[in-house]
């Protein structure tokens, strides 16, 4: 008589079927040993929470309530901080444009990316859960930024005339397209990558060109490369330059006001099509005008705020 216990394993693939053969005495011993162990484990799992000490249960429930309350408060603080960041980021754009001409901040040394304007909110990206220290750090940045803006607005309020000189008004009507940005890009004539010292804005020929801020016409003329051009000196630090005009409506030495017509878009000089070439200079060094110009649809409200 066969006194062995055989255990068969049948996977999905019949060719991999396995069998374990044990002596009957060993199998019976393992069976009766496993039953008490299973019962003990089941009892420990089932009876442990049911027989939790009342004092410990109350403490556990209290900690759970506090944990939920702290989590909700953390999320609320995060939402508040995010809202303040968004509001202050829009104010930062106006502040930079305003302080550019006062010398209080140099745009030449600022990062080139538009998203990195707000130095108060620089922080490393993290995928971990927010901590109390991170929330307090964000709120501290918001408070510092708020104080800084208060001081900046105070300076602007005392220097309204200077603020009107800041070249922040968009020089064209709404609908203008950026054909070639500031910085390295492909040359339209050679196709080679070269540095573009300004920004090319496209709109229908004959469209009006407006002065981006108060200033004095430093020079007006015609050049084989730039065609008809206008050079405006807004302050002793900030200047703007416009080229490829169809017509110039100002004269050298004339004082112009923000929003005054200075010419019309054309195709004069070396150009592949009608557009406006605009440059912005800070202390003689060319910078990206799009970092400081207000969008056409927003400039009226922003200018009235100044």
List keywords for this structure.
36% helix, alpha+beta, 5 helices, 14 strands, 306 residues, 10-stranded antiparallel β-sheet, disordered C terminus
Reconstruct the topology from this structure.
Elements: E1 4-9, E2 18-23, H1 24-50, H2 54-99, H3 132-158, H4 160-163, E3 177-180, E4 183-186, E5 193-196, E6 199-202, E7 208-210, E8 215-223, E9 227-233, E10 238-248, E11 255-256, E12 261-265, E13 276-282, E14 285-287, H5 299-305
Antiparallel strand pairs: 1-2, 3-6, 4-5, 6-13, 7-12, 8-9, 8-11, 9-10, 10-12, 10-13, 13-14
Task: Give the overall form.
Answer: elongated
- Structural class of the secondary structure composition? alpha+beta
β-strand amount: 15-25%
Total number of helical segments? 5
Radius of gyration, CA atoms, in whole angstroms? 36 Å
